[in-house]
Protein 1
Amino acid sequence: QNGSRAWRSFATKKFAAPPMTYISGEEMSWYTMKIIREQWVEPFIDTSKWEYFDLSCKSRDETNDKVLHEAVASGKRLGAIFKEPTITPTTEQVKEFGLKKPFGSPNGAMRRGWNGITISRDTIHIPGIKLGFERPVFFERHAVGGEYGASWKGVGKGKVLTTYWPEDEKEKPVIIDGRVLHDDESAVVVYDNPLDNVGDLAHIFFQRCLEANIVPYVVTKKTVFKWQEGFWQKMKKVFDAEYKEKFLKAGLLDKCGGELIHLISDAATMQIIRWTGGGFGMACHNYDGDMLTDEVAQVHRSPGFITSNLVGKSEDGSLIKEFEASHGTVADLWHMHLRGEETSMNPLGMVVALLGAMDHAAALHPESQAEVTKFTLSCREAVYEAFRTGNGTRDLMGPNGLTTEKFVEWVAKNLEA
Ligand code: NAD
């Protein structure tokens, strides 16, 4: 039997996918995943064990955000999660959707709920096509702390005192900062960088780099932002104790003087444009990771070619993995779609995430691994083939690329063939 006959007989018999959490979102990314589920997933897979949560603003509003808490609890229990991009409503969107309140970022709630360690963002490569980077680029973005967890107030002239009160009340309070504000208007901001899980982040990062033959770098602005020294020190300690020898043996430190290299974040922004050969990884703080990975997305041709996977930890020490694309809800194409205009959304980032979540669910339920792997490999290959044969989306192919719907149909036909 040839491969396609075998696939056909497989396709007529649905297989039961192991449990995972499926979080649906909003706008163009939601619409594209809806038609993908209808045409690529439902004909082949029994998804009744998937736990499905609608995190649209409307659903969060109707359930008073119960749906978010349930989604976080489900992800914690199942350990494998796929998530579509969601909206954190702006003041205008609160009015537009008639929401009861400005709901906070669901991503923040998930990072906290799953004890988020890192958001791993990697370039996706289509065999046979050169995108921006020749070899993979890996990013490890610290999932907690920094500006995202900041509190702030707009104030006038006066004094500000920031004091730390140790948990142990026998210890004396420590003044972190005292300053005089001279302007009529100032923004005063307070945030912290939790450092306890940087060791876990280091292990995830160095192991990934080693497996993929990638040179690791740690990126901070510690020369000026002195408080970032702790992140670098923790990364270096883990590296020197447990990875240095292995990286030296693999020849991955030959151009780094045999040591782990620290890059200042502004230098990193330049290297990302220059190092188009790829084959490097960067670990950094939360905000730097947000910015630098968008730059990587541009060099690599499209936000559709970057993954975004949150790695967290359950109480028993096992890893919780959430798989996402790095882009947002692609609001501009959604508005074109609503106006009846043609769109061309590249679904690869979301599909790689969906297949990644399915593979991880299968790793947690090994009895179904063979069937799941067969499907995820075929599906990934079918999407690659679309791009390779000139049937890709317009972000890569230009004006001759397929529309969102035609691309989904092309791959669906290939899956059925
Ligand atoms: P976006 O990533 O949705 O889009 C940025 C630009 O890139 C747009 O011009 C868009 O058309 C293009 N683009 C992005 N992905 C594409 C793809 N796969 N194929 C073709 N073109 C693509 O970011 P935005 O416009 O700044 O944000 C839109 C909404 O998404 C906002 O409400 C924001 O809050 C939300 N958002 C959510 C997440 C998340 O849930 N993880 C992340 C980022 C933004």
Protein 2
Amino acid sequence: MAEPNLQEIHDFLISVAKKAGEMITTARPSTTQTGEKKNSADLVTETDQAVEKMVSTTLKDKYPDFSFMGEETYKPGDSLTAAPTFIVDPIDGTTNFVHAYPYVSISLGLAIKRQPVVGVVYNPFTQTLYSAIKGHGAFLNQTQRLPLREPEPLRGLDNAVVCIEWGSERTGNDYEVKTATFKKLCASKDEGGAMVHGLRSFGSAALNLCGVASGGLDIYWEAGCWPWDVCAGWVILSEAGGFIVDGNPGNWNQSVDGRRYLAVRKGEGQKKIVEEFWSFVQGKMEVG
Ligand code: LIP
């Protein structure tokens, strides 16, 4: 296969994201017509399925040799290979979409040799577009380079806004680890806590990563995400000077399908704040 033209792919993905955005903003989902996958905290709508169908058909027409991995057509056991693969979440933030909370995105990524190389994340309600090509920087609306301001040093968790997500798993070891960690992060220092500036939980992993890339969120921690939640945002964050490591303490290596993510914004003190964060993680996540 000829070397893929990443700029062309990036531009094409943006056009696909805009088309998907029209489908999303004109849909009228309701809580009564919404389907559940694993449980009542894991939703799917007809629009998720229709958008994925449009995206996969459009991408397969244009790039017939590329593989495709999408949230709505993924089957347990499917795994990411070294082949160029589009990794797609048609609606990241389905719960927000159903409840008409406008923090929703379409997340379109391309991985080659299992490394994310192109990312497009688009919120059609706010018309906010984040995009990046590996080695060429990350941008908001194709014009403003990320991060959006000169990053201050990461002075420590007691100066940080930390984004977390509850995920749809609401029982078992990982739920215990998460909730105990959230409590510890918020608690006062007298009680052995980190006393963070604030914990935020917005409901779209892709947009959360873009929030870290933009610089407004210092750290984002989630376990249980899938490659389609993170592939596109991964490129955007890395190109904005941030990085992602394993959410479990002590493991610096992470892959796009590693399922536990700790993302840190650009700024002096990145490694130190990761280690500080891990010191507050109350146990080990089993998901992976
Ligand atoms: C959702 C994420 C959210 C996470 C959920 C879920 P969906 O994606 O983006 O941040 O906490 O577990 O994965 O299901 O809306 O595409």
